[in-house]
Write a structure and sequence with these properties.
7-stranded mixed beta sheet, alpha/beta, globular, 504 residues, 9 strands, two-stranded antiparallel ribbon, 21 helices
Length: 504
């Protein structure tokens, strides 16, 4: 157990120091709870009142649900739930409500979300003479359609990829990993790993303990310059991908895991559009092929052709006239496409992109940094306008060889790098050599994984309240689907998703 527990009269400063050095969630939570007690935040949690949400309305709704649950009044529960299930009912989902205490938000909000989840299961398991199967199916499909669902978006970040592993492993251990996952570049590789394992297999720690097959003791600058005999960026990428050994298509991955894996890729040609590969848009494309494309950094490794499983079961080129490169240059976080395809309206972002991390703060919580945020926005807008003008001028005078690089830079600057819950790698947690896959021993890799975990622990309470109801709705719909149509043979762990998926 941590040494601070043996001390009496510890200070806020000592507790914060212990918080930064915790190596497990249990240790972190113990210190965070002590910190909340000492700072008065726990007292704040126990009180309903706050200017940031309508606590009187939430209290009334909570007490009504509890009374109906105690009575076992199925019909009235269904009526109350039909009034609407929303993640931000009366403002209770506002991120600022999670910025006061380390261990969570108002206890009333936690209790209300849990009561809704309990009520949903009471309705789902109600006797058929009370609520018919068809009425249940209709209600839960509508509820899922309107409530929406969460997605985890994994940014690009090259050798900082191990921070993603810490984030994902923490979400797995807490049963909070969404079924919709997107990745670009480094995030695509982690997504490809997640396509291989069921939830039960992931619980063993395979993601947190995974290590890519990168050559060690190489100077990354010499590799980029072509001065290392027998080693090139392409050979390093291929070696690492061979270790992942994922030969499934997107459809097969969904059937195996129940997760929709999405990988962003960008076109190598100027007038083409970026794409989001998944089991809906490209079910027969090999995930490895999309990972290969999304990991092809322009100017470092050549663009690639996608491959898909043909009708004869053999690989064949997919869009054979097109070449594809690193998806993070066009759409690092494909929020709009995930919303359209899967009804996603809540985004958890793991941000490790070295281009963005130095300039990105969490806009949902860090309200005290408005001046810096405005300054960063002005600088980004100015750089974007400059690049647009430069590209236009060069095209007019016939200088085209540099145009793709300018367009790539423009694409990087003209993106949003945050979501609803932002897990941002802190600048003190990485070295720039890590970006180039250069690590000073296994300890440096372990520290990156641990940094991902530490950055996730303070967000777990917000993630849990935002995702619990959506996860319960998906699970209930899956159980009702089996009652209505029977158990599908060889269905793996796939889950039902409602379509069309435009949230209310």
């Amino acid at each position: 157990m941590m040494s601070w527990k043996k001390q009496n009269g510890f200070s806020l400063l000592e507790l914060r120091r212990c918080l930064r050095t915790a190596t497990s969630f249990q240790d972190w939570y113990t210190v965070a709870l002590a910190l909340d007690n000492l700072s008065g935040a726990e007292t704040w949690r126990q009180s309903d009142a706050s200017e940031f949400y309508d606590f009187l309305d939430i209290r009334a709704r909570y007490e009504q649900l509890i009374a109906l649950l105690d009575e076992g009044n199925h019909e009235e529960l269904l009526y109350v739930l039909n009034e609407g299930i929303h993640g931000n009912m009366s403002g209770m989902g506002r991120p600022i409500l999670y910025d006061r205490a380390m261990t969570g938000t108002k206890c009333l909000i936690d209790e209300y979300v849990t009561a809704i989840a309990d009520a949903l299961w009471v309705v789902a398991e109600a006797p058929s003479e009370k609520i018919s199967l068809q009425d249940k199916v209709d209600f839960f499909r509508r509820a899922s359609h309107c409530y929406g669902r969460s997605a985890l978006m994994l940014s690009g970040g090259a050798g900082l990829i191990y921070s993603h592993h810490g984030v994902v492993q923490t979400l797995i251990e807490q049963d909070l990993l969404p079924n919709v996952i997107s990745g670009a570049s480094a995030g695509a590789w982690v997504s490809g790993l997640l396509a291989m394992y069921t939830n039960k297999e992931l619980k063993s720690g395979v993601i947190g303990g995974y290590r890519y097959d990168f050559p060690i003791h190489l100077n990354p600058l010499r590799v980029l310059a072509g001065l290392e005999p027998g080693v090139s960026p392409l050979s390093i990428k291929e070696c690492a991908m061979d270790g992942i050994d994922n030969h499934m298509t997107f459809q097969e991955a969904y059937e195996h895991t129940g997760r929709y894996i999405n990988i962003s890729i960008a076109p190598a040609e100027k007038h083409q559009n970026s794409r989001l590969m998944n089991a809906i848009t490209s079910p027969n494309v090999y995930i490895r092929s999309a990972m290969d494309a999304s990991g092809s950094v322009p100017g470092v490794v050549p663009p690639v052709t996608l491959y898909a499983r043909g009708a004869d079961g053999k690989p064949k080129p997919y869009l054979p006239t097109r070449k594809w490169v690193d998806g993070s240059f066009a759409e690092d976080l494909p929020a709009k496409r995930l919303s359209r395809l899967f009804g996603v309206n809540h985004y958890i972002v793991s941000m490790i992109n070295p281009v963005a991390v130095p300039f990105v703060d969490d806009p949902k919580l860090r309200t005290r940094r408005r001046i810096r945020t405005v300054a960063n926005t002005m600088m980004t807008d100015a750089a974007t306008d400059l690049l647009s003008g430069l590209e236009h001028c060069l095209t007019r005078v016939g200088v085209s060889f540099i145009s793709p690089a300018i367009l790539m830079a423009h694409g990087v600057l003209n993106q949003s790098y945050t979501g609803d819950v932002n897990i941002i790698l802190e600048k003190r947690n990485f070295y720039w050599r890590n970006v180039l896959f250069s690590y000073h021993g296994d300890e440096e890799i372990d520290n990156l994984v641990l940094a991902g975990k530490r950055n996730t622990w303070p967000k777990l309470a917000m993630i849990r309240n935002a995702t619990m109801i959506g996860q319960e709705l998906d699970t209930i719909l899956d159980s009702l689907d089996q009652k209505e149509f029977g158990v599908r043979p060889n269905a793996g762990e796939r889950r039902r998703l409602t379509f069309p998926s435009v949230p209310c």
